[in-house]
Amino acid sequence: MAIIERSALNLLSVAVIAGISGYMLGCAPVEREPAAQAAAEPNAQQEQPDQAPEDADTAGQYSPVKARARDFYAPNTEDLGPDEMRLIACGTGMPTARPKQAASCWLLELGNGDKFIFDIGTGSAERVSALQIPYNYLDKVFLSHLHTDHFGDLDALFVGGALAGRQKPLRVWGPSGETPERGTKYALDHLRKALTWDLDGRQGLTDPRGYHLEVTEFDYMGMNEVIYQENGVTIRSFPAIHSLDGPVSFVVEWNGFKFVFGGDTYPNKWYAKYAKGADLAIHECFIAVPDMIEKFKFTPQSALAVGTQIHTAPEAFGKVMSIIKPRMAVAYHFFKDFDTTASISDRIRTTYDGPLSLSIDYMVWNITKDEIRVRMAVVDEDVWPPPATEKPQLPDAATRIPYSDAISGGKLDMKKVLQPTYDEINKQYRIHEKQE
Ligand SMILES: [Zn+2]
Ligand SMILES: [Zn+2]
Fold this sequence. Notes:
- It is a single chain.
- By secondary structure, the protein is of the alpha/beta class.
- It contains 15 helices and 15 strands.
- Helix 1 (2-25) runs antiparallel to helix 2 (34-40) and helix 12 (314-324) crosses helix 13.
- The longest helix has 24 residues, at 2-25.
- It binds zinc ion (2 copies).
- One zinc ion (ZN) binds next to loops.
């Protein structure tokens, strides 16, 4: 009896080990059936569970661990199909900066080659850079409103993008306000003025074509009105209810797809109407009120006012999604941690039981008519800008603004130290640059 029990135990171990071996081998050709071999040599298998089956013909000829398909998105490795959209979350957080989550930013890529950035909140330019997309393709930004967590990195994309290969103006669309001073045009005219020293100092040093902003301000009260129509893509806007008059949401229509990006808002009837039936619908979903009090240190009064009246509470987010019934609902604008996600999810699920993504930075959605595939991007932190898609234009050195005599007179003499570098580069690139 004891012997039978021991045999049974051995067989069980063998089955488990054979399973593990098969898993590790993946698709590698195995001439001998592992279970049969294991049964013949149970002790040998038990002692060396992580080795491939011994075989005189193949031993030492291949590694037993074979590559298997990975289920993540590696930037710059996948072409987009002609009937496919890809959305990448480049910022899902809050106005308060944190390493894990930049503030609102979404990159939408279409199968026709077009790319659009919706919001460019604080910290998000870094996420955009990780996607390794040539900056000439990142020239269209749509702002939902003028809170810094929705446009705080516009300067980084504007200047850094021009420096790294955007050889054309950065085009920005954004809403008007109740007064001209609260509109996008006023904000960006003054942002451009704030960058006077930065931009003046770059004159004559690099390709000058990217250092221009082209701003289109549209009426924030437009009801699903067209604000962009190019290359088979139509983008519309409608109002949101948030903080002051002015915020909006966007609808993108292309190739039979409907994508909706909702900026910050109290749940509103326009979103309920115009976002209906979207393939993918993004809507803000704020931190649950108890977490705002306990973790964000809001007073209960402020937590209720901000978390339910200025923004959309998770329960309300769920209600909105139950009305519009998208193929995929995407929630953002909360700190997504191990101890906050459950309460967000539980509260949403009191009012919505459809497809849901609780977003985090670098979440990726591939959308076709047949499926919506959700993955995470894995990015290279050592990323450099991709090459420009067109030949860089040499700047006119005569446009450089000189130092004053007082400042240039403070230079140490480095001519001898630097001449070898000039000689090296002049020789390598067959140019004739001289030190100033
Ligand atoms: Zn806001
Ligand atoms: Zn916000």
